[in-house]
Design a protein that fits this description.
This protein is α/β, with parallel strands linked by helices and 271 residues long. The protein is built from 6 helices and 13 strands. It has a domain of 128 residues: Cytidine Deaminase, domain 2 (3-Layer(aba) Sandwich). The strands form 3 sheets. It has a 6-stranded mixed beta sheet, sandwiched between helices. A 5-stranded mixed beta sheet has the order 5-6-3-4-7, with helices on one face. Helix 1 crosses helix 4 and helix 4 packs parallel to helix 5.
Length: 271
């Protein structure tokens, strides 16, 4: 259940009248690793396994690509929504991300809330290698495809979306959630389950690009990151350092590139 109906009282021109609205559902999900607490994240129910898989991968808790962890549902609420899961991971496969566990709730608007510290990137962090340049004329079509598939947003106007594409513009996964970072994690998890992560070359998001979105894009090895909204200064600096081409304000077939612009083929045309 990703949306629900609610009744409100709308004020207009000196009068109140009743309105029925569709709102995005927000519920908590407690995640434990081998029965040890990891985090409580606020998210929109749906694609929960993808969310958990992508979150643990992007947070360096479980970095295996070929083998999926065992995710067990612990609890559901009275609405049938999953509220607690435990992830079974072999002890030797638990990554360093578990050491920086989240001690408080991770809210919908923030992908790093609850962390005791920011992830530290080594000075010699390996940059993403770009094997093929991006045809910029494909970007507008990617956003069109994502927008067309945003059913939750069409109903409520209250969700974010993320989508992954191949270098030639084929859509691999599209996910929605009340949280920007959750939508990205769901996409990464979906790609991992489909064994399509290596084919994902462009990550498109509906909200602003900040530190945590770039970090997740890098963890997934995706070289191109684009948004309809603005980037932060740290997002641009981090993208340049990690080899990610960051593009923002992608609207009306136009965009602004802020990092690794040399990886865009400015002379390409759509066949």
């Amino acid at each position: 259940m990703s949306t629900a109906s609610y009744t409100g009282r709308k004020y207009s021109e000196g009068e109140f009248f009743q309105v029925d609205d569709i709102l995005v559902v927000e519920e908590s999900l407690k995640i434990t690793i081998n029965k040890n607490p990891f985090t409580v994240t606020m998210r929109t129910p749906g694609s929960d396994n993808e969310l958990v898989r992508g979150l643990l991968f992007s947070e360096n808790v479980y970095s295996e690509i070929e083998t999926d962890p065992i995710i067990v549902v612990n609890e559901k609420n009275e609405k049938g929504i999953i509220t607690s899961v435990d992830v079974n991971i072999p002890i030797g496969k638990v990554g360093k991300g578990m050491e920086i566990s989240r001690s408080i709730v991770s809210v919908s608007s923030c992908g790093i809330c609850g962390k005791s510290e920011l992830d530290e990137l080594p000075e010699n962090s390996k940059k993403i290698v770009v094997e093929e340049k991006l045809n910029p004329e494909l970007l507008g079509n990617m956003f069109d495809q994502m927008t067309e598939a945003q059913n939750m947003f069409k109903q409520s106007g209250g969700s974010h979306a993320a989508a992954a594409f191949t270098i030639d513009g084929k859509i691999l996964s599209i996910q929605e959630d009340i949280g920007r970072h959750n939508a990205v994690d769901k996409v990464i998890g979906s790609l991992l389950f489909q064994k399509q992560l290596k084919n994902a070359k462009c990550l498109v998001v509906s909200g602003r690009i900040s530190y945590e979105i770039v970090n997740k894009c890098y963890a997934a090895g995706i070289p191109f990151l684009a948004s309809v909204s603005a980037p932060s200064s740290l997002a641009v600096e981090l993208s340049e350092k990690l080899g990610i081409t960051l593009m923002a304000f992608c609207r009306n077939k136009k965009f602004t590139a802020y990092s690794r612009i040399e990886n865009i083929n400015a002379h390409s045309k759509v066949a």
